[in-house]
């Protein structure tokens, strides 16, 4: 329906009660004593977890920026790794060779 553009001439005669909305309002009012503490608890848990994450994010940014500036200015010499593994490649499987004859067993040598 939406909101009327202008008020009716006789609001008391034209007014109708929307029973669905009234019942929904009463249902919410009945659940309010149980829902409000749960919502407040959820918000507190979220706040308790958000504050340390924000602090750790800021510290990670600061420490990373310091490390980047030290590496960029030549403060630390990054040497080659001490262990260099040899590259390994996959080789095709060898085909089975036929059994070789043994001399003296009725097979041509």
Give your account of this protein's structure.
- The structure is a single chain.
- The protein has 109 residues and is mostly helical.
- The chain has a domain at 17-72.
- The chain has two helices and no strands.
- The longest helix has 54 residues, at 19-72.
- The radius of gyration is 40 Å and the shape is elongated.
- The model has no long low-confidence stretch (mean pLDDT 81).
- Keywords: Membrane, Transmembrane, Transmembrane helix.
- Residues 87-109 are annotated as: Disordered.
- Residues 87-101 have a biased composition (Low complexity).
Overall outline: elongated
Query: Which structural category fits the helices and strands?
Result: mainly alpha
Number of helices: 2
What's the SSE pattern? HH
Determine the fraction of residues in helical runs and give it as a percent range.
40-55%
- Gyration radius (Cα, Å) is 40 Å
Number of extended strands? 0
Taking the alpha carbons of the first and last residues, their distance comes to 104 Å
Mean pLDDT: 81
Work out the strand percent. Answer: under 5%
Largest sheet: none
Region (Disordered): 87-109
Biased composition (Low complexity): 87-101
Transmembrane segments: 38-63
Keywords: Membrane, Transmembrane, Transmembrane helix
